[in-house]
Amino acid sequence: MSMKPDLAATLRSLLLEQQTAALATLHKGEPALSMVPYALLPEGQGFVIHVSRLAVHTADMLANPAVSLLVVAPAGSAASPQELVRASVQGWARQLPPESAEYANAKALYVARFPASEQTFSFSDFKLFVIEPRSVRFVGGFARATSILAGEFVSIMKGAE
């Protein structure tokens, strides 16, 4: 593993503690950003998002599954904004079929993290997606940046050091 153990622990903490990410999609040939709550699949297998079909980003993901997520530590958690811990995840968005076991597991994880979301699962326009990481750019503070591929991300999220 190329990421130092202390940075790996910081990355895990960031992704487990934060609940929202900026989601970047391609919309009519232009970059588009939105905010999405997320839950994590075990062992770095992906980010679970539950989004409305009425939202532009949902149609964008169906048209082009290449997406990016940005998770940032809270403002004020570092001496300057440039030092905020953050992770940019490049990945593939995949809609989960409601009848699959994978859907049931992802839904349980999402509802456990966001109990108030239970009601939106009864709305026909809400769909469950998994963002499967391809690579991660992690900034663990000033001059502490590194890039990793999906395999190393899985190892880090498993807690392997």
UniProtKB/TrEMBL annotation:
Q: Which Pfam families match?
A: PNPOx_N
Which positions fall inside the Pyridoxamine 5'-phosphate oxidase N-terminal domain? 9-139
The record's annotation in Gene3D superfamilies points to: Electron Transport, Fmn-binding Protein, Chain A
Query: Which PANTHER family does the record cross-reference, listed alphabetically?
Result: CELLULAR REPRESSOR OF E1A-STIMULATED GENES, ISOFORM A, CREG1 PROTEIN
The name under which this protein is listed is: Heme iron utilization protein
- Output the lineage of the source organism: Bacteria, Pseudomonadati, Pseudomonadota, Betaproteobacteria, Burkholderiales
